[in-house]
Each structure stands twice: as C-alpha cells, then as structure tokens.
Amino acid sequence: MLQSRPVTNLDNSYTDYEIMHELDSSHPTETEIYSRAHWGEIFPGSSSWICLQWFWANKSYFFRQGLKIGGKVIDDYNPFFENMGIQYNQVMFNLSSGYYNFFAGYPEAKHAQSMVLSMFGHQIDDKDVLQLFRAQGLEAPKPSLTGIFPMLSFIINSLLFGPKNLIKTKEEIIDKNPYDLLDILKQYSNSKDIFNKILDNQYFISDTALKNHGPISVYTAVNDAILKAILESASNNSNNIESDYNLMISSATDVISAEVPKILCEIAKSIKDKQWFRQLSDEEALRVLTTGTNESSQKFRYFIERHGHRGYRELDPMYKPWKSNPMPCIKTIKTILSGNESQFEAKIEKSVEEVVNGLKTPLTPFKKLLIKHVLLPWTRRGIGYRELSKYIMVWMNNKCNEGFWHLAQQMTKEGLIPSVDTFFYLTVTEVEALCNGQRDPLIFSRVRQRRRLYPKMDKYKFEEFIKGPEMKPRNFEDRIIPPVLTSGGRYSDHVLDGHRLESILPITFGYNHRNRWNDISRGSHCPRIRDPEYGIPSLIAVEGACRAFRTGDICLLDTKTQTITKIDQQKTNRVLTHDVWKNNTSDAGIIPFPHEWKYELPQQTKNEDVLIYGVNSSKQSIYIAIKWRPKGVNDKINATISLRFDDNNSNSYTLEEDSE
Question: What is the mean pLDDT of the chain?
Fold first, then answer.
C-alpha cells in the first residue's frame, strides 16, 4: 500500500517441514502402518532426491508383473498408487495400502508366516499389525481359475527355466557384450541430449535388472519352503527346526557375494611385507595396489573389475561404488593385516554330509537321504542363483548411476548447476527443467535447504512399525530410548563409531563377521542377525550413543544396569593394584565410571596379603572386588578400604574374609 509500484517479490521459500516431507508417500487413511524392515538394509538412512524419484518412477513395471502372474487385472491400475512408503526420504514397506499384499491372513496363513519371518526375522505380536493382516486376509478376493492358472504357470516356469534364463542374461549383458550406458552418452555433447538418452535407456536397464529377480526369488522360496516342511513334518520342536534350518541355509558359501570378503583376505595374505603396507597412508596403499605387478596388485585389480560396482548404498547414485572410491577396501585390507593369521585362511565349506549329520531334528532315513541328495544341494544352488540375480540388478543400476554422474559433470560444465554434488539434491523434474534452459532461482534455494537438512534426516531412526497419521522417528527430538539387551555381561574396550556403515567397513569384512553381511547366514529371504551366539555382551538401540562417543574412546558396557559409560583417561580416577608378594604397586586400569574424585588406597604392608583388582560404581553404590590369599588355613585376613567422596568426607569399611 505504501509503494508506488506493484509488489514484485514475495516470500516463496519453503519451511524445513515442507522440505523434509516433500517426497513423502500419500496416506489414504489415518491409520497407515509402515515398516523399515528389509528396505532399511537396501536403502539405509535417507536416500537422495534423484534416487527416490528415479528408482520408484516406473510404477507400471510392477503392475505389469502383477498382470503377468494373474495377481492383477487391468482395471486395478492406478498411476497415483504408491509402490512403497516414503518418510523423510527413507524407503519403507507400506503394510496398509502398499502394492504387495504379502502378509494377508497372518498369523493363520502358512505362506504369510513364512513371509513375515523372511521380512522381519521374527514372528509379530503387535496388536495393530495383527489386526491389519487379519483384515487383509478377510478382504482378499478369492482366487479365480483365470488367476490361478497364470500363477501356476509362472511358478512352474520359474522352477524350470529361472536359473537358465538368469545365466543367459549374465552372459549377454555382462560377459560377452557388456552393456555400457556411459559409452552411449559420450556421443552427445549437451545436457539435454544426455538426459533424454538416459530416459530412452531406462526401460531396458530396469527390465534387465529385474526380469530375473522375481522368478529366481520364487525358485528359492519354493526350495526353502520344501526344506522347512520336511523338518516340520519330523518334529514339533520349533527351536530345533529353526536351528537346523539356519544351519542348512548358512552352509551355502559358494555364492558370488561371498567372494568379496574372500578376495579381500586373499589380497591381504598375498602382500609380502605386511608391516610396511600397514604403515602406508591409504592413498599410498591404493597406488601400490593399482600400479604394481605382483600377486596382490593383480588380485586387487581383479576384485575391482568383478565387484567394483558394489559399495555402500550402492543403489543410490549419490554414493560412489568401490570402482570410483576404493578407499573402504584399502582400509579393510589394512585392518585384516592388523589381525591374526587366522583371518587369512579361507572358510572351509561344510559338506552336505557334515550338515545332515549335525541336524538335531529326528529324521527318518528316507528324509535324511532326501535332504542329503536332493533338497539341500537344490537349496544351496537356489541361494547362489538369488545372489547372482541381485548382483546383476546392482550391476545394471550402477550403469544408470554412471550416466547420472556423467550428466552432473556436463551440467556443471555448462553452468547449469554450481557443482556436481548439487545434482543429487535435485528432483527429476528440476533436472529436466534445468536441461531445457529454465533458470529458476527457487530450485537452488530448495537445494540449499535439502543439503542442510539431509544429514539430519539421514540420522533418523524408526521403530519397527511406524503408525500414522504422524510418522515421527524415535530420535526426532533426541530423546533417549531404552536399549535392548541381546547378550549379558560387562565389557570395557575401545569404541569404534559405527553410526555409518562406511566407518565400520574395516571390521565388517573381517573373516569372523563376513557371513552376517549377506544372505549366506540368514537364508535367501531371512534378514536375521544372530548376535548372542558370539557371547559378547551387547546392547542395541542405545539412542544418543553415536553423539556421545567417538572412535578411540574407552567405554564400559554394563548390561545389568543397561548403561554405556565413557571413561576419561585424563582423570586421576584410576585403580592401583598392590601386590604384597612382590611389594610393588602398579596401575590396574581406569575405574569404569568417570567420577571426579580420587580413590585413595590405605597404607599396605607385607602382612596384609590383599590384592584390590577392580572397582565399579553405579549411582549411589560402590562395589569393590577384593582378592586375598591367606598365609595359613586358619588365618583370618581383614581388608580395610578407605574412600574419599566428592564431599571430602572420608569413610572406612572393614571386610572380613567371608563378607560379600
């Protein structure tokens, strides 16, 4: 009203809330239930904007698969229907309204029990989720004859021709005439043509990546179902059945994903001067392995050529694979070299006979022969085939990612975006607009906000089941969540900050842990982790730990009090051990809890045959472990402990030999 000219600038900025939810999937109801199960492994944390829009853009592909197997009819198609759920850029299963109705009829339906076990790793007891699955079972339409025959045909075709077609695809696309999108794009000199060519190739990439995965998954699922049915028919002991099933599944090691830790161990073993290699910087070690001519260099180049398309967050183009960023592999090799010699030895696969002899389920001789000669070898091959199908899927997806990086570099060269990494904070629509010559400053305003908010969104952790309407992460306000006890005890050691997978890569590919990172140890569909069997005291879901502790800190983990306490090495609160036989005092380590006051030991002489070897405190109580050796059978030895608290009040306590 006070200006003589019209208003030409309004506040078109976006709030943080709008940015964090701009890609969220729609909620048809207020009671939608999502879960990060399964997808949390494939898409850890928050994915980039280009990844989410591109990966899930081809909605019609999934629908065509439904038509093919008779699960859908043409009238069911809805272009606005979401394949999966998205919250804070994190991919989730939409259990309520998602495309896949895997769990209908649970827990009564047998197939639903298997799917729940494979996706969640355990049976479900959440009341809301159980009610949802039962309702879906009641509402599910009865299969018609026209729907049953295509499904049976699909299953039979998968069993008979699934492996053959998979191997044929690998030979055509990877081995004989490798597909390379980058070579195709290099023929074009501007961003617009490059973007359009990526669009033209997208259907071929997507179809080739996925066309074998469905049939092979069915092939493997049938194998597993038959194998487990044989065990269930022989015993009612569910513990033995689960144990035997896991034993048989984990015995399969001849799979392509198992080559990763195996080759890395072989590279470490072939390095002649291990001490010298460990002392090199990561950059120098990489140069030695990439330019050398010895055995270790040849093995490393073979590893990058065969598995270079793999890596952390390998489906997200924002994150480079090992071929473009081999540093995680270098760190892993150096970590293996720092371990003992046993890490260099290859894992010996158990024979079928050894596995069968180790089963606890009481099987008849006929069933043992059936498992030994037919079912177990068949299941092992199925696991290998499914790993190969995922290998091809990631390989093809990496070709598309290489195209994105090429496009980002060209857009930067043309001045369309300020830097290459800006590309991954753009949506597909924004990329197309920039390639077409539009100059909208609001695009880069959103990019700045996305770049600022992405680390925060990436750290969000969700409960197993996230329920609408407001699906907040459990650490949305940095509140503390009680940890889950998985193995009891107390343990003190150095901390390795593993909030990000890349920070623990040096240990995850160690020989003793490798089976926990792929399908070998959990079966072809079962994402379960068996931690307690290692016997290490552990707590999980301790929120705030990654902010409080850093790599190198010394901490005490106590599962009894469910606490993790940082020990300050610079403080004077240490325990001194007095050995009366040698008449010397030595430093016995750090007191497990970081109190500010000092612990003073009483004056000791040779007549006091007492050894103080441990102090632990918890809130108001202080526990001191004492060990003494009486000189004679009838001698009574007393121990006096003097403590000085932070209020400077001294107290003395006398413990007799039989005191607790």
Answer: 77
* pTM of the predicted protein model: 0.70
Q: Tell me the DSSP string of 212-247.
A: THHHHHHHHHHHHHHHHHHHHHH---HHHHHHHHHH
| Residues 2, 8: Cα–Cα separation, whole Å | 14
Exposed, middle or buried: residue 552 (CB in 10 Å: 0-12, 13-18, 19+)? exposed
Pairing of strands 639-644, 650-655: antiparallel
Chain-centre distance for alpha carbon 446: 30
pLDDT above 90: percentage of residues in the chain: 38
CA dihedral 52, 55, 56, 58 (to 10 degrees): 150
What the block records as the tokens of 292 is 């050398």
Burial 297-319 (b: 16+ CB within 10 A, else e): bebbeebbeebbbbbbbbbbbbb
How many angstroms from the chain centroid is the CA of residue 162? 28
Sign for the CA dihedral angle at 471, 43, 76, 106 comes to negative
**Maximum distance among all Cα pairs of the chain, rounded to whole angstroms:** 106
Q: Tokens for 488? A: 């009891």
CB 509: neighbour CB atoms within 10 A?
A: 22
Cα of 216 vs its chain's centroid, Å: 23
What is the tens place of the pLDDT at every residue in 618-635?
444 455 555 444 444 445
